[in-house]
Amino acid sequence: MKQLAVDELQKLEIEPIEKITTYDRYNIDKSLLLPAYKLLCKRASRMSAEEGERLKMPTILGIHEARERALRSAAESGCRSPTSADAGDEELDKILIDVFNLNSHATNRQGAQSQVKPDPVPTPKPGVNGTTNGTRSSLLGSSTQNNNQQKDRDKNKGKAKLSEEPTEGGGSSTEFSISAVEKKVELAVLNFYLPTFIQSVMTVVFAYVALVV
To answer: At a CB cut-off of 8 Å and minimum separation 6, what does 149 contact?
Structure first.
């Protein structure tokens, strides 16, 4: 449940200071804070007094050290009037991983997952009568698909006949139009209540995480 809450939290756009304080409060993996640390190092202004009060002293000192090292790196690369924002992304990543003792393997977890190769498709083995299992399965699947298509066509024909029959008031049936209107109404209701539902779920998840921690 905690991992599910963390995954949902990672999808949200959260201001760096708020994200760092939240992850510290619930003892979440600090390697996930690398993007937030980078934003604080790259921005032109330093942390304000109010922001400093919200962060822990080790975090403040770490951000200050990382900015200084990024500034020196930019100066050594020949940049005129260098700032911490002039340091390369890879160099800044190395600095932050070293300063905050982050798990570099965890920071690259998402990239590694995207590079995982899918399992190879097993080669079908020939059956007793010389027909491969794959061929036999494809024939069965094709037959089932044809049957389903025929059933769908029969069902659509039945609906079309019903739509052509007059109602008691003398008008024609509008089954398909009503169905389309109902779908639009359901979609509008879903769009209206979905943000409130997501917010409620996140509140419950955060409460659960607080209890677990």
So the answer is: none
